[in-house]
Amino acid sequence: MGHIKLWDAPLRIFHWLFAASVTAAIVTGWIGGNLMVWHGRLGLLVLGLLVSRLLWGFVGSTYARWSRILAATLGVRDYLQDNWREAGHNPLGAFSVLAMLGLVGFQVVSGLLATDDIAFQGPLYALVDSATSDWLSGLHRQTRSLLLALIGFDLTAIGWYGLVRRKPLVRAMIGGRARREHPAQHDARGGSLLAAALAVIVALGSVWAVQSVAERMQPVPAAAAPSLDW
Q: Do 108 and 43 touch, CB atoms closer than 8 A?
């Protein structure tokens, strides 16, 4: 039955940038030391990506929209009975997307407010008291294991769909097209270039806002005492 346009270009760009930046953030955070500077920078990059994805869920093309993803979570019964005929995310994929974005979002927010008092201070750590920052720092470290487990589950599901179900999910996320499996499935619509540009602008603005607040919270260095020439 041919192929359909499934994933739009902005969503595919987000997907691969998100995967690369989250992976790099995990690695730099795990190694620590001097790489914690890059860990913080990658956290800001992920923040911008999450904001752009949040907006794209409202103004993007058909299968990128939150309405479509949330509706898919209601189709678990049809999916388990092998009656799922919709294009885009199936119920399992929809839950995975929501869990991944929610978990990474928590990691970003907690990282902005966290500090280990040694090698890293989140740019907004001064907004909360020391006890709250320490608590969030602990959760940030503990949630890493849950994030790794979710990534492992996603990779396993992708491999299973490709090898067993013969559905090349990676190819679809690269080229944007997928095999039409039911006559009712249709091409994705919407998601203009202007909407994509606006999403990027708002995402950049959110990162700039965080950095601006962080700079304003930096303590003003004390003036040097005047030298006395005798």
A: yes
